[in-house]
Amino acid sequence: MAAKYSNQSRYTVAVDCIVFGYDGKNLKILLVKRALIPLKGRWSLMGGFVAKNESADQAASRILAALTGLTNVYQEQFYTFTDPGRDTQERTISIAYFSLIDIKKYKESISDAYQAEWFSIKDFPNLIFDHQAMVKMAKKRLQYKATSHAILFELLPDKFTLPLLQSLFEDVYETSFDKGNFSRKMLSTGLLLKQRDKDKTGSKKGAYFYKLDRKNYQQNLHKILKLVPNPNSIL
Amino acid sequence: MAAKYSNQSRYTVAVDCIVFGYDGKNLKILLVKRALIPLKGRWSLMGGFVAKNESADQAASRILAALTGLTNVYQEQFYTFTDPGRDTQERTISIAYFSLIDIKKYKESISDAYQAEWFSIKDFPNLIFDHQAMVKMAKKRLQYKATSHAILFELLPDKFTLPLLQSLFEDVYETSFDKGNFSRKMLSTGLLLKQRDKDKTGSKKGAYFYKLDRKNYQQNLHKILKLVPNPNSIL
């Protein structure tokens, strides 16, 4: 390698991961207790430094796998935080990612080393540095992306009922839907395949299971926009 | 400031700017001849290093102002490029921005120092490093964003005709529209205010001027989606 760029500043570069999960009732985020000085022991997003020979994507996957035991997780870079004073230890650029995981899979493979805990997106502790702003932006990006990609289905089991899907959409878009209206609009998207069996845990009558129609969903995804109460507040 | 993080690598951090402009006929990007070793003299995006006391947003504005003389330009961070080998001189993280400028304004204030030139987005020289991939992603982001934000109007004069608007949309979405169909759909979005005067440079009959209805455009912006031939290829 040639001589380096002269007279330029160099900074540590980190990734921070906003991990979303859904437990069938609430949209949640996974937080850890920070293991480093400064602010050791405070609640924080899971993060780490980008090492010499890896890209930020690779660093984010490595860090998420160390925490959750999971690989092949949906993960997306969404914004880079660069305020000169954001990290009080030294100037650190943070490339933020959000990921979506199935909470049940996670439970089977969790590492205890990080003191990780799930918190409702509606009620979680104060976070260090600019991590609060990262969560806020990640949620907005999730709302935005979910209008045109099947990413929310990553948070659900393979078979799900309309009430479960409605509860997830209500949490993500911070709204409540009329039940009949939600079902009608959701079915009209052509995204769902009705199954023969029912979930009878919620009521005697039960609720039919559905699966995402992976064959035709590319053409129909943008129809989810119809479900969003005010697309212009998020798009 | 406390002791630094120990044993961590540090990298130079740059911003690169994809500057879009529209000259009334073609969507263009602004390129410069690189002033630094390596690859000095080769075509490149306009970029520079993030200095000690500035954020990436501030660096991007500073660099764009130095090149174009323009401030208060629409500018948006869209992706951070981190491949360990992307810069052959030393490891450099690049935070990429796209901006939209009115080519006419630019012409009045251009700095000659950078040997900058506009190229059609359909035909421009090979670029250094991963700048080709940056342009590709910036264009996709522009397509995506323009379905729900009035950003394409940043590229147009205050008053414009429907043929001019159609030509811009055709360039951005790489398609051609039927004239009657485009006009009908565009007017049905409720985004445009018809003016009393006509542009008569194109034909004897002339074409009415329109302005963006800035009072009501927030509610109507997502209707632009109707104009996009295949929303799922870009959303």
Topology:
2 copies of one chain form a homodimer.
Chain A: E1 12-22, E2 27-33, E3 43-44, E4 46-49, H1 56-68, E5 74-81, E6 92-102, H2 103-109, E7 117-120, H3 131-146, E8 160-161, H4 162-172, H5 179-188, E9 192-199, E10 207-212, H6 217-220, H7 231-234
Parallel strand pairs in A: 1-6
Antiparallel strand pairs in A: 1-2, 1-4, 2-3, 2-7, 5-6, 8-10, 9-10
Report on this structure.
2 copies of one chain form a homodimer. The longest helix of chain A is centred in the middle third of the chain and has 16 residues, at 131-146. The first copy, chain A, has 2 domains: 12-124, Nucleoside Triphosphate Pyrophosphohydrolase (Alpha-Beta Complex), CATH 3.90.79; 151-233, Winged helix-like DNA-binding domain superfamily/Winged helix DNA-binding domain (Arc Repressor Mutant, subunit A, Orthogonal Bundle). With 235 residues, chain A is an alpha+beta fold. In chain A, the strands form 2 sheets. In chain A, strands 1, 2, 3, 4, 5, 6 and 7 form a 7-stranded mixed β-sheet that branches. Chain A has a 3-stranded antiparallel β-sheet with strand order 8-10-9. Chain A is built from 7 helices and 10 strands. Chains A and B meet through strand 5 and strand 6 of A and strand 5 and strand 6 of B.
CATH architectural grouping of the largest domain in chain A: Alpha-Beta Complex
Helix content of chain A: 25-40%
The level 1 CATH classification of the largest domain in chain A is Alpha Beta
Helix segment tally of chain A: 7
> What gyration radius of chain A follows from the Cα positions, in whole Å?
20 Å
Principal-axes geometry of chain A comes out as: elongated
CATH homologous superfamily name of the largest domain in chain A?
Nucleoside Triphosphate Pyrophosphohydrolase
Oligomer: homodimer
